[in-house]
TrEMBL record:
<dbReference type="InterPro" id="IPR020550">
    <property type="entry name" value="Inositol_monophosphatase_CS"/>
</dbReference>
<dbReference type="InterPro" id="IPR033942">
    <property type="entry name" value="IMPase"/>
</dbReference>
<dbReference type="GO" id="GO:0005737">
    <property type="term" value="C:cytoplasm"/>
</dbReference>
<feature type="binding site">
    <location>
        <position position="222"/>
    </location>
    <ligand>
        <name>Mg(2+)</name>
    </ligand>
</feature>
<keyword id="KW-0460">Magnesium</keyword>
<comment type="pathway">
    <text>Polyol metabolism; myo-inositol biosynthesis; myo-inositol from D-glucose 6-phosphate: step 2/2.</text>
</comment>
<dbReference type="GO" id="GO:0006020">
    <property type="term" value="P:inositol metabolic process"/>
</dbReference>
<dbReference type="Pfam" id="PF00459">
    <property type="entry name" value="Inositol_P"/>
</dbReference>
<keyword id="KW-0963">Cytoplasm</keyword>
<dbReference type="GO" id="GO:0008934">
    <property type="term" value="F:inositol monophosphate 1-phosphatase activity"/>
</dbReference>
<dbReference type="GO" id="GO:0046872">
    <property type="term" value="F:metal ion binding"/>
</dbReference>
<dbReference type="InterPro" id="IPR000760">
    <property type="entry name" value="Inositol_monophosphatase-like"/>
</dbReference>
<keyword id="KW-0479">Metal-binding</keyword>
<keyword id="KW-0378">Hydrolase</keyword>
<dbReference type="InterPro" id="IPR020583">
    <property type="entry name" value="Inositol_monoP_metal-BS"/>
</dbReference>
<protein>
    <recommendedName>
        <fullName>Inositol-1-monophosphatase</fullName>
        <ecNumber>3.1.3.25</ecNumber>
    </recommendedName>
</protein>
<comment type="similarity">
    <text>Belongs to the inositol monophosphatase superfamily.</text>
</comment>
Length: 283
C-alpha cells in the first residue's frame, strides 16, 4: 500500500490552490476584522469561510466520518484539538491573518495530513506569491514541483534566523522573546527576520533562504504542514529545549541542521504555553 495517500496528497494541493484564490479575491474587498483570544489575535470572515470550503471539499472527497479534522477556526469555536490514530487533516485556512488584514504580502494556506499520529504530507500555498510548497513523507520537498533543499550553512555567524513574537502581549513573555532575539542577533548572525506566518517561515527554511525558524506560542495548524516540508527538504525539527519535536506543545525550532539548531537553542528563553491538546477548562 505504498501509494495509499497519493490521492489525498494531490487533492490537498488542489484544495489549497482553490482556497488561496478565494483569499486573494477577498483581499481585494473590504475586510471585516474581529478578535479571538485578545485584541491582537485577529480573525476575518475569510478565515472562517476558507476553512469551511477546505473541510467541506475534503469531506465530500473522502466521506464524512472516516477522516478527522483539526482546523484553526473550528477549534476556536470549541471543536476538540486532539490527534488520534485516525487519518486527520490539520488545517490553517489563512496563516498570517494579521498580514492579510494589513495587506502585508505573506499569507498561506496550510494543510497537513497525519495517520497514526504521524505526519504523512504537508501542503503550503503561499497564495499572494503564488508559490505551492509540498512534501510527502520519504519523497522529498518541492516548490512549484521543483525539489527544494535546506541551506548547507553550519557557521551560525553566516546565518539568517527567523522568529515571531506571536499574539500574546504578556509583558514577561514579550521580555523573554526580545531578550532571546537580542542574544541571537549578537552572536552575531547575519540577520533576524519574520514573515508573519509560521507556514511561510518554515518554507523559507526548507528552501534554504534562512537557516532556522523558532517560535513559542504557535499552534499545531501553523506548523504541521511545514514540519513535513522542512524534514523532507533535509532539515531538522526539535523542541526549543532540544528534546523531540512535539506537534501539540506549541513550541518548536526548525533548522537546516543540528549544529545551527543546537546553537540557537542555547539562547532561547523558554516560557509556558498551554498545550493544544490540553483538556478544555470549564468556565
Ligand atoms: O493566526 P495565524 O495568522 O493563523 O497564525 C500566526 C499566529 O497567529 C502568530 O501568533 C504567529 O506568530 C505566526 O507565526 C502564525 O503563523
Ligand atoms: Mg496560523
Amino acid at each position: 500500500m505504498a501509494d495509499q495517500w497519493q490521492e489525498a496528497y494531490d487533492f490537498a494541493v488542489q484544495v489549497a490552490r482553490a482556497a488561496g484564490a478565494v483569499i486573494r479575491k477577498a483581499g481585494e474587498c473590504e475586510i471585516k476584522v474581529q478578535t479571538k483570544s485578545c485584541t491582537v489575535d485577529l480573525v476575518t470572515q475569510t478565515d472562517e469561510r476558507v476553512e469551511k470550503i477546505i473541510i467541506g471539499s475534503l469531506k465530500e472527497q473522502f466521506g464524512e466520518g472516516t477522516h478527522c479534522f483539526i482546523g484553526e477556526e473550528s477549534v476556536a469555536k470549541g471543536e476538540p484539538c486532539i490527534l488520534t490514530d485516525k487519518p486527520t487533516w490539520i488545517i490553517d485556512p489563512v496563516d498570517g491573518t494579521t498580514n492579510f488584514v494589513h495587506g502585508f504580502p505573506f499569507v498561506a494556506v496550510s494543510i497537513a495530513f497525519a495517520v497514526n499520529k504521524e505526519l504523512e504530507f504537508g501542503v503550503i500555498y503561499s497564495c499572494l506569491e503564488d508559490k505551492m510548497y509540498k512534501a510527502r513523507k520519504g519523497r522529498g520537498a518541492f516548490c512549484d514541483d521543483e525539489p527544494i533543499q535546506v541551506s548547507d550553512v553550519k557557521d551560525i555567524h553566516k546565518s539568517i534566523i527567523i522568529s515571531e513574537h506571536g499574539t500574546d502581549r504578556d509583558k514577561q513573555k514579550v521580555k523573554k522573546i526580545f531578550s532571546t532575539m537580542q542574544k541571537i542577533l549578537c552572536i552575531p548572525v547575519h540577520g533576524l527576520r519574520g514573515s508573519g506566518t509560521a507556514a511561510t517561515n518554515m518554507c523559507l527554511v526548507a528552501s534554504g533562504a534562512t537557516e532556522a525558524f523558532f517560535e513559542i506560542g504557535i499552534h499545531c495548524w501553523d506548523i504541521a504542514a511545514g514540519a513535513v516540508i522542512v524534514k523532507e527538504a533535509g532539515g531538522v525539527l526539535l523542541d526549543v529545549d532540544g528534546g523531540p519535536f512535539d506537534l501539540m506543545s506549541r513550541r518548536m525550532i526548525s533548522a537546516n541542521n543540528m549544529v545551527i539548531a543546537e546553537r540557537i537553542i542555547k539562547e532561547i528563553e523558554i516560557f509556558d504555553s498551554v498545550r493544544d491538546d490540553a483538556p478544555i477548562q470549564k468556565k
